[in-house]
């Protein structure tokens, strides 16, 4: 077997000279192929570049017919070159023509060559082209030669990415790198965002690929690996000092890889072949990324992701760059792209610059999703491979309604979305104008509109939307974001901050509603067959009264000198409410005894969301100061259909006769007892559902801030008495229709009620 002439180091040295020469892009590429062919004693060396239309175009060749340059193209997947592009893996054959994928291109005159070695030209895991050498004799290329070719491919990748090859491209947007891509993800927060990509964990762009002094590069690599290991160990040891977005499990996995001998050996080999330490990391990372894009097994994907993470850390260590995006310098119209991120990390960005968020992993129920919704940033989650497909600065459109992410969208898509965004903005302006208009129906019935919140960042929406109060403050969200169970004083400060922010408007705090899908990362989890039917919410509060007492005490202290409203989640019977009420009164007495300024008034409410309470309505209404209907849970339990499982949750409609009848009973019981009944589930924020609720007797609704405008617009257009008569006529029918939605929609459409 022949070995490469002069070896890879000499090749790299010569390549460095070629890269520095002031020649045209085509001349440089032509020199590169000549150099590789002679260094590897190959008769042929060719560069194929992947175009935006997925064709592979011959860009330079030594040995094949030069007339074929820029003429020969093949589709990705066609021939051996296409196969390499498709699989993003090298192909090493002693008899190319025997391979089932071999396809003959007469214009190139390649039938006389037998052996074939091709490697993908990779960048960030994406294939940009293919680099090939061929020989007349049958031979297998050595590992060293494959390495050398892969390294050269990195140089060509840099020429493509830096734009150098644009001057010889047929059209300015002809590279695969510029290709528009649509990634389908899961909608997480409504809205449409147009802007430019900012990578939450920016990639280090390695410019200097070839080493000047190999021994020095080895030293730099070793020092960086050591420093990185130390910093990971420190992070794992001091969990509370973890930076934004750091997750313990990821760090643990990353630590194992950092000590993996195979990984470190591959890095060393790459440096010894003549690359700089940074380029060596990128080489090894490219391979892992290319594998990642094709890996469907979730476990292996996770491990490859960990490796990618590790390579990123090492690159940042080597270059001294910050590991996360510089918050200060993100552009206006930023679309944030992240593999995943913690909620606190998102809060660190300047909201006024964020137009959208795309996550590769986080789904709709993730904590960062909750924060994204609180901030009102158009968000899509579960967007596969998005961090590899996007380059910093790429134009990106996030459609938080459909879940589509358009990367480098063509002009017509940009225009269509621009129009969509303008329409939405105009609608928002119209809603904003309704801010100080009272929500009164055409026949003069006033409806109280309140807002749901859960984070301190939500509270300013109260003043922006003109909501009357915070009708539901989900306290568990702050607990879910905290690194450990918030102590009494931390809770006090949070509730105090909420009181300060709402100024003179009321706020209804709900005590901790954890369990089921709302997990506190620092609390031991218990395995339950049916967590939604398990130990959660007030059940935990009553079984661990210390936690509930601490929370109520913090709320009462924070409320000193003001009115406070507290409600308890998942009350299943009167006795549970009584027990919770006793705890609250005891805390109030304790506060007074110890000389703290007490609240001026304490109102205690029960959430009606467990169906059993439907048969104790008068009793609970007599004992509570107010009732609040949690329709999200009530409907899930009525239909025995998990609210987070779209396969079953979409099966049953909230606008159905059974749900309407149940809700009607609750409103009627409140009326009988003279107690306010608010509905705070998601249905209250949807105009059509809200219309039905008014017709059932609800006069108080609490909803997400973005729903207040649309619901108010509906209220202003409705004649309530007419709606009541209409809904009553539907409910009087015993025709078993699974949904009243279409009837209600027709009613609204005929009267120009915006729903
Ligand atoms: C509900 O169940 O409707 C509700 C408002 O509470 P949560 O969504 O927090 O369970
Ligand atoms: Mg609930």
Could you characterize the architecture of this molecule?
The longest helix has 24 residues, at 214-237. Helix 1 runs antiparallel to helix 2, helix 7 (261-272) crosses helix 8 and helix 16 packs parallel to helix 18 (545-558). With 755 residues, this protein is an alpha/beta fold. Residues 240-246 have low confidence and may be disordered. It is elongated, with a radius of gyration of 32 Å. The strands form three sheets. The chain has an eight-stranded mixed sheet with strand order 7-14-13-9-10-11-12-8. An eight-stranded parallel sheet has the order 21-20-19-18-17-16-15-22. The protein binds phosphoenolpyruvate and magnesium ion.
Quick structural summary:
44% of the residues lie in helices and 16% in strands. By secondary structure, the chain is an alpha/beta fold.
Shape field: elongated
Tell me the strand percentage band.
15-25%
Number of DSSP strand runs: 22
Rg estimate, integer Å: 32 Å
Number of helices: 27
Average pLDDT confidence is 88
Helix and strand composition category: alpha/beta
| Distinct compounds present | phosphoenolpyruvate, magnesium ion
Main sheet? 8 strands, mixed
Strand order of the largest sheet: 7-14-13-9-10-11-12-8
Q: Regarding quaternary structure, how should these chains be classified?
A: single chain
Question: In which range does the helix fraction lie?
Answer: 40-55%
Low-confidence stretches: 240-246
Distance between the termini: 76 Å
Keywords:
755 residues, alpha/beta, eight-stranded mixed sheet, elongated, binds phosphoenolpyruvate, binds magnesium ion
């Amino acid at each position: 077997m022949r070995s490469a002439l002069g070896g890879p180091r000499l090749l790299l040295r010569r390549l460095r000279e070629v890269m520095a020469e002031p020649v045209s892009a085509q001349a440089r590429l032509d020199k590169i192929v000549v150099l590789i062919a002679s260094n590897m004693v190959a008769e042929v060396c060719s560069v194929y570049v992947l175009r935006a239309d997925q064709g592979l175009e011959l860009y330079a060749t030594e040995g094949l017919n030069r007339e074929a340059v820029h003429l020969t193209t093949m589709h990705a997947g066609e021939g051996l070159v296409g196969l390499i592009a498709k699989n993003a893996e090298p192909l090493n054959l002693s008899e190319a023509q025997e391979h089932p994928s071999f396809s003959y291109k007469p214009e190139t005159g390649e039938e006389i060559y037998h052996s074939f070695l091709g490697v993908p030209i990779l960048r960030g895991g994406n294939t940009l082209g293919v680099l090939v050498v061929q020989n007349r004799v049958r031979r297998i290329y050595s590992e060293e030669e494959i390495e050398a070719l892969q390294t050269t491919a990195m140089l060509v990748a840099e020429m493509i990415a830096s734009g150098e090859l644009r001057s010889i491209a047929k059209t300015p947007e002809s590279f695969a790198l510029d290709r528009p891509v649509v990634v389908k993800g899961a909608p997480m927060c409504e809205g449409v965002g147009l802007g430019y990509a900012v990578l939450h964990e920016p990639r280090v762009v390695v410019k200097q690929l070839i080493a000047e002094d190999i021994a020095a590069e080895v030293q730099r690599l070793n020092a960086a690996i050591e420093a990185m290991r130390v910093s990971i160990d420190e992070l794992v040891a001091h969990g509370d000092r973890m930076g934004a977005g750091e997750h313990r499990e990821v760090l643990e996995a990353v630590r194992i890889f950092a000590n993996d001998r195979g990984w470190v050996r591959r890095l060393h080999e790459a440096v010894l072949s003549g690359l700089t330490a940074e380029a060596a990391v990128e080489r090894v990372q490219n391979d892992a990324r290319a594998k990642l894009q094709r890996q469907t097994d979730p476990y292996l994907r996770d491990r490859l992701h960990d490796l990618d993470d590790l390579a990123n850390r090492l690159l940042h260590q080597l270059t001294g760059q910050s590991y996360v995006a510089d918050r200060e310098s993100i552009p206006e119209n930023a679309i944030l792209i992240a593999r995943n991120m913690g909620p606190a990390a998102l809060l660190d960005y300047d909201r006024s610059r964020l137009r959208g968020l795309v996550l590769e992993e986080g789904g709709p129920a993730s904590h960062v999703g909750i924060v994204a919704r609180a901030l009102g940033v158009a968000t899509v989650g579960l967007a596969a491979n998005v961090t590899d497909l996007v380059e910093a600065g790429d134009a990106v459109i996030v459609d938080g309604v459909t879940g589509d992410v358009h990367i480098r969208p063509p002009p017509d898509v940009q225009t269509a979305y621009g129009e969509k965004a303008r329409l939405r903005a105009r609608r928002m302006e119209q809603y904003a104008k309704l801010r100080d208009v009272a929500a009164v129906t055409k026949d003069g019935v006033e409806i109280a509109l309140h807002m749901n919140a859960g984070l301190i960042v939500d509270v300013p929406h109260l003043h922006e939307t003109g909501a009357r109060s915070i009708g539901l403050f989900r306290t568990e969200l702050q607990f879910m974001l905290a690194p450990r169970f918030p102590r009494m004083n931390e809770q006090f400060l949070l509730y105090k901050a909420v009181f300060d922010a709402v100024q003179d408007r009321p706020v209804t705090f709900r005590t901790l509603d954890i369990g089921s899908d709302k997990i506190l990362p620092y609390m031991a989890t218990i395995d339950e067959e049916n967590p939604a039917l398990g130990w959660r919410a007030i059940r935990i509060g009553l079984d661990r009264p210390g936690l509930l007492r601490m929370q109520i005490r913090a709320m009462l202290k924070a409320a000193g000198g003001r009115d406070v409203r507290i409600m308890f989640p998942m009350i299943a019977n009167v006795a549970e409410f009584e027990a919770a009420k006793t705890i609250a009164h005891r805390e109030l007495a304790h506060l007074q005894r110890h000389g703290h300024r007490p609240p001026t008034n304490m109102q205690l409410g029960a959430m009606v969301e467990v169906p059993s309470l439907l048969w104790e309505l008068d009793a609970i209404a007599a004992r509570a100061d107010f009732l609040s209907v949690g329709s999200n849970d009530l409907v899930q339990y009525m239909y025995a259909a998990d609210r987070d499982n779209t396969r079953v949750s979409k099966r049953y409609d909230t606008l159905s006769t059974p749900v309407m009848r149940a809700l009607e009973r609750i409103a009627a019981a409140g009326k009988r007892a003279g107690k306010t009944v608010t509905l705070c589930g998601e249905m209250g924020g949807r105009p059509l559902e809200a219309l039905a609720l008014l017709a059932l007797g609800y006069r108080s609704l609490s909803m997400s801030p973005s729903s207040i405008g649309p619901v108010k617009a509906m209220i202003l257009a409705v004649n309530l008495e007419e709606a009541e008569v209409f809904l009553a006529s539907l409910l009087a029918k015993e025709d078993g229709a699974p949904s009243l939605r279409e009837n209600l929609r027709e009613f609204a459409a005929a009267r120009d009620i915006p729903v």
